[in-house]
Amino acid sequence: MVPAFIGIFMVFKENAKKTAHLPRAPFGADAEDGLEEWRRWAEIEELDRQRKA
User: Fold this and answer.
1) What Rg value do the Cα atoms of the chain yield, rounded?
2) Are 34 and 25 in contact (CB under 8 A)?
3) Helix/strand/coil (H, E, C) string of the chain?
4) pLDDT band of 15, cuts 50, 70, 90
5) pLDDT tens digits, one per residue of 16-47
6) Following CA atoms 23, 21, 37, 32 in sequence, which dihedral angle do they give, to the nearest 10 degrees?
């Protein structure tokens, strides 16, 4: 049981090192959410509106 807990702890520790620079994302879940991503979605929505009109 103890080796399993140590292994799990090490996985979380390594993940924390890799994602420390990310804003609020646990496990980097929202790494793509940002101003650039919002702009891309806005452009896609605008193109869809133009096609439908």
Assistant:
1) 19
2) no
3) CHHHHHHHHHHHHHHHHHHCCCCCCHHHCCCCCCHHHHHHHHHHHHHHHHHHC
4) confident
5) 887 666 666 555 565 566 677 788 889 999 99
6) -100
Determine contact, residues 10/2, Cβ cutoff 8 Å: no
In angstroms, what CA-CA distances link 3 with 10, 14, 15, 23?
A: 10, 16, 18, 31
Round to whole Å and give the CA distance between 35 and 41: 10
pLDDT score for 27? 59
